[in-house]
Amino acid sequence: MRSDRALRRRQGGFTLIEVLVAFTIFALSFAAILQIFSGGLHNGATADRALIALGHAESLMARAGVEEPLTPGQTSGQIDEGMTWQQSVSLYRDAAMTAEPPPPGMTPYAVTVSVTWQDRGRTRDVTLNSLRLGDAP
Question: Cα separation of 77 and 101, whole Å?
Fold first, then answer.
């Protein structure tokens, strides 16, 4: 009779300690999975904002020297999505350039476009650099 009771106790199910340990392991695993998932969502949102900023920077770079002539200096502005932009134009000088002036419309300019935004308290930006040809100043 005693052996039947001991056998039933072993086959009866899990002890409270075993259930608590299993639940703790599950909870820790679930918390880690949720953290990884939320990090992935945040990284996706950051990449999406960077892609939007890159599109704006490419658009601003494409306009440089087309809508208005290139003139050395800086311009800036705001974009609807909480982003700001800055464009810098300067004459490009290289050691290989000769002392004679370039032909009309062939003066090289260095153009830099930056789009900046805030992401969870951090300042992020996308910057493009290019050389453009224009008229002498």
Answer: 33
Q: Cα 85–91–93 angle (5° rounding)?
A: 130
How is 45-64 classified by DSSP, letter by letter? Answer: HHHHHHHHHHHHHHHHHHHB
- pTM of the entire predicted model: 0.69
The rounded distance, in Å, linking the Cα atoms of 135 and 103 is 9
Structure tokens at 39: 């990090």
Contact 111, 70 (CB under 8 A): yes
What confidence tens digit (pLDDT) does each residue in 94-105 have? 766 667 777 777
DSSP state, residue 100: S
Cα angle, residue 28 at apex, residues 22 and 29 outer, rounded to 5°: 90
